Amino acid sequence: MNARSEMSYAGDGRHTNSYYAASANPAPDRPSLKGAIEADICVIGAGYSGLSTALHLAEKGHSVVIVEGARVGWGASGRNGGQIVNGLNASLQTIRKRYGQDTAHFVAGMVQEGGEIIRERVATYGIACDLKDNNIFVGLTGAHMRELEERRALWASYGIDNQEMLDREQLRDHVRSDLYAGGLIDRTGGHMHPLNLALGEAAAFESLGGTIYEISPVTKVDTEAASPTVTTAQGKVTCRTLVLCGNAYLGEVVPKLAARVMPVSTQVMATEPLDPDLAASLIPGDDCIEDIRYILDYYRLSADKRLLFGGGTVYGGADPRDIEAKLRRNLAAVFPQLAHVKVDYAWSGNFALSFSRVPQMGRIGANTYFAHGYSGHGVTGSHTFGRILSEAITGDLSRFDVFASLPWYPFPGGRALRVPYSVIGSWWYGLRDRLGV
Questions:
Q1: pLDDT tens-digit profile of 239-265?
Q2: How far is Cα 410 from Cα 414, in angstroms, rounded to an integer?
C-alpha cells in the first residue's frame, strides 16, 4: 500500500498551552529527520504507544528509531487527565458477550498490566512524574451504584480483587462532594503527570541507544515493499519492520487505518494553585476521580495543588470555542466552593475512538504493525499494547494474534456520517445521564 497525505500539526510542533507543558521537566529539542537512513525498526509516533513499543524493543537490544511529527508527548499522551484507569473502554461484560468467555478471560488477565508497566518504568528509570496511587469511580444514582457493584463482582470472578465498594459516607474520606451516592476504589489505579511520564520514557529509550526525530511529519508510508519506507518532508527511513502508533493524529497517511477510528476531543482545565487546606478538603486522599456517566467528569489534584478537571467530548476532534465555559458548570456542580475559582490553563486533545470501544491491533502486509483506538483508556492500554507489539516483532505472536483476530466494526454511515451519528448517540446517552436512568 502506498499512502500519501501529511499528518497535521500546527505551527512548529510545540506543545499546546497546557499546565503539563508549563510544568514539564527539561527535555532536549531533538533534530528533524534529514536525508535517507536505514533502521532495523522504525516507529511512527512518540506518544505512549510508540514509546512503550520502542522502549521494550530497545531493552531487548534492538536498534529502533522513532519518527514524531511534533514533539515527544505532543498528542494525547501529553494532554490527558493523567489517570491510571485499569480496563478497556468496553467492559469485561461487553467483551464476554461479544467475543466469548475465552477472550474475556484473556482480557481480564491483562487489564492491570498497563499500570504495572508504568510503575516499573518509573522505578527502573527514575522518572519524575508525581506518580500516586488510587483511582475512584463514583456514581450519582442508585443505578450507578448497582453498575459499580456488578463491575466489582465481575472483576472478582476473574480473580481481580483489588476493588472495594464505598458508600456515601465512606466516599467522603476520599472526595468531599454531595453529588455522589458512593463509589468504587481501585487501589491499583492511580495518577501522574502524563507529559513528564512520556518525556521520561523517551529519555529512557535514548539511554539505551534509541533515536527520536521530532518535527518530522510523515507524508508517505509504503508498506508494499519487503522493507517498508517512511517519507517525511526532508527525509526517508527504510526499515525491516515498521510500527504505526500515530493513533488519533495519524491523519490520512494510512487510509486503511483512518477509516477504523474517529478522532474525539476531550477537554481539561487547571485551576490556580489552591490553598493546601482547601485542596485537602476537596480530595482528602489525593486520589483521582471519575464518574461513570456516558459523558463523564474526571479530576484530581496536581503536585502543586491545582484541581485538574476534565470532561466533555467533541466528535471529529474539533476544539470547543470556550473550554473553560464548557467545563466550569460541571466543576461547580461537583465543588460549589470552586464556582468562581481562577482557571490558569484550559486545553483540548484528541483520542482515537473505535466503534466497538475495543483497541485495535494488527498488521498491514508482512512487516508493518499498528495499534490504536484506545477510546479514552489509552494511558494504560497503550503501555500494554506496546509490550504486545514488541513481543510480536520479536517472534512471540501469542497475545498479538488474539487482538489481531478480533473483528472491527465500521462507524454507521461510513466516514462521511460517523460524526453526526455519534453525536446523536451521545445526545441519547447524555439524556439518560441527566434523567438518571
A1: 999 999 987 677 678 878 777 877 888
A2: 7
What CA–CA distance (Å, rounded) separates 424 from 255?
25
Residue 133: count of CB within 10 angstroms of its CB:
17
Q: Which helix (H) or strand (E) holds 101?
A: helix 101-108
Contact 150, 184 (CB under 8 A): no
Mean pLDDT of 141-157: 96
Residue 278 has pLDDT above 90, yes or no: yes
Q: Which H/E stretch holds residue 185?
A: strand 182-191
For 116, the grid coordinates are 504495572
Contacts of 329 (CB under 8 A, 6+ apart): none
Of the listed ranges 40-49, 149-158, 308-317, 335-344, the least confidently predicted one is 308-317
Secondary structure of 193-239 in HEC code, one letter for each residue: CHHHHHHHHHHHHHHCCCEEECCCCEEEEECCCCCCEEEECCEEEEE
Q: What is the largest CA-CA distance in the chain?
A: 63
Distance (Å, rounded) from C-alpha 184 to C-alpha 135? Answer: 8
Q: Which of 221, 196, 265, 211 is nearest to 370 (CA)?
A: 221
Identify the sign of the CA torsion 273, 276, 278, 284: positive
Q: Across-strand partners of 137? A: 184, 290
Consecutive H or E run containing 372: strand 368-372
Contacts of 427 (CB under 8 A, 6+ apart): none
CA nearest neighbour of 350 among 201, 248, 432, 253 = 248
